[in-house]
Write a structure and sequence with these properties.
- This protein is of the alpha+beta class.
- The chain has one domain: 3-Layer(aba) Sandwich (Aminopeptidase).
- It is built from 4 helices and 5 strands.
- It has a 5-stranded mixed beta sheet, sandwiched between helices.
- The termini are far apart.
Length: about 160
């Protein structure tokens, strides 16, 4: 049980196995994530590419050296809305043992602060339809459902 507030800071390469472990705990939308010798190079390449892009950030909530959750966010400027800058929360995940302790809210608040500091005027995110608890969490933080999302797997991938 977390007694004091976790520290929210930028993720380190050494955090990668813990991030993947948190993904592996995802019972609702899990995609078979696991930290194995075969899969580790792909995770490392993705993490390095994310960190090399100045528009992307991965932040973690850490308590006593243990990663409790993370957010991957990125800045996006598009033509809609007069070219305004927004931040997309690409991933918000909290370790199963740390859920309900305010870790997710702390991470989202930190992501929103990064968005404001970077000049963004909006934060958006998508969440799988089966993530009913996550939807309630986002609504409690003031997010409203505005869109219907679509996805398509590409052949051979």
């Amino acid at each position: 049980m977390v007694q004091e507030q976790p520290v929210v800071e930028g993720a380190l390469a050494a955090d990668l196995p813990a991030l993947v472990q948190i993904l592996a705990e995802d019972e609702v939308g899990g995609k078979g994530d696991a930290w194995t010798n075969d899969l580790a190079p792909g995770y490392r390449a993705a993490f390095e590419a994310i960190l090399a892009n100045p528009d992307h950030r991965v932040i973690v909530a850490r308590h006593e050296g243990r990663v409790l959750g993370f957010v991957h966010l990125y800045f996006l400027r598009g033509l809609p809305s007069h070219g305004r800058l927004k931040v997309v929360l690409n991933s918000v995940f909290v370790a199963a043992a740390a859920r309900g302790m305010g870790v997710g809210a702390r991470l989202v608040a930190a992501a929103e602060a990064i968005a404001r500091q970077g000049g963004a005027t909006e934060v958006t995110l998508t969440s799988g339809k089966k993530r009913v608890d996550a939807h309630r969490f986002y609504r409690n933080l003031g997010y409203e459902q505005r869109h219907e999302g679509f996805g398509k797997a590409l052949a051979g991938q």
